[in-house]
Amino acid sequence: TVAVNGIINTTESVPVGNTVVDITGTNNVQKMTGTDGLYDMSNLQSGGNYLLRPHKNIEPLNGVNALDIVRLQRHLLFLDLLNTPYKLIAADVNNDKTINALDIVILQRLQLRLIDSFPNNESWRFVPQAYNFTTSNPLTENFPETITYNPINSNMSNQNFFGIKIGDLNGSANPSDLTGNFGDVRGGGDTVKLKIKSNYSL
Length: 202
Fold this sequence. Notes:
The protein has helices spanning 66-76, 85-91, 101-111; strands at 2-9, 20-25, 29-32, 38-44, 50-55, 124-128, 147-149, 161-165. By secondary structure, it is an alpha+beta fold. A hairpin with a 3-residue loop joins strand 2 (20-25) and strand 3. The termini are far apart.
């Protein structure tokens, strides 16, 4: 038999806990990462074909706050572009391969608790850390979210993934989802300025 192991981190190297990791094929194994982000699949049949996939679809409000909406607005206005492929993936909240005003509307509705999940998307997406994006727009790429072994003949270490929290554009998500207190997080030191136009006079 052989084994597969690795770690799931954010792009800031913070471990992502409570992530289900499945390996399916000749035989099936499922593990869940702890707060260290580690997983270890053992007793896999050597010479078998397997598909490795992490998935996590809980607490969509984790890391989603007003600052993310402002950040997305600034990106769409070309004032402060999101500059990594992982942030662009996080900004495409409805997974329609484009970033537009509809993504802002969905984040607003989620914050107001008018919806309780991302349409056509999960709370977290995962990309193998070994993958190198080939274009400036990852949404146009068929980037992998799994690792395939056809076949597997030896132990496979460092099968690592980046975890991407959908809707979190300022890195405020709790990667282990332990507090359950989401939706009202504010980034330390950040200020949001609002202009209100009124037709009334005092």
